[in-house]
Design brief:
Blueprint (H helix, E strand, L loop, with lengths): L19 H10 L6 H17 L5 H12 L6 H7 L4 H8 L10
Length: 104
């Protein structure tokens, strides 16, 4: 199996290397066991990126999740529970996307 290149923060160098198996492996490295709720956000992020060629920062992510999945999931508390620390950054990483521009 070829080595998957990642940058110093663990983001994929080649977005085409992403697979669900790799996302699961990366989640384990982050101490997360992916649930259906995680996958829902990860797939939503990948679709967002496919449409806009952008990894959304937190405010845009919350707004997009709210518009697609409803009020109870479209809030920062819900996303923090799934992706602790920086939800936009961590969810983008697990989705195989670049780091959102304004995330530290």
């Amino acid at each position: 199996m070829p080595t998957i290149q990642r940058d110093k923060l663990g983001f994929l160098v080649n977005l085409s290397d992403w697979t669900e198996a790799l996302a699961t492996e990366m989640a384990v490295e982050e101490g997360i066991e992916l649930s259906e709720a995680h996958w829902e956000v990860i797939h939503l992020l990948r679709a967002f990126y496919a449409e806009f060629a952008l990894s959304p920062a937190m405010r845009i992510l919350v707004k997009h999740v709210r518009s697609q999945l409803g009020e109870e999931k479209g809030n920062s508390i819900y996303l923090m529970q799934l992706f602790p620390g920086s939800p936009a950054k961590l969810a983008s990483k697990l989705a195989g996307l670049p780091k959102p521009d304004n995330c530290l």
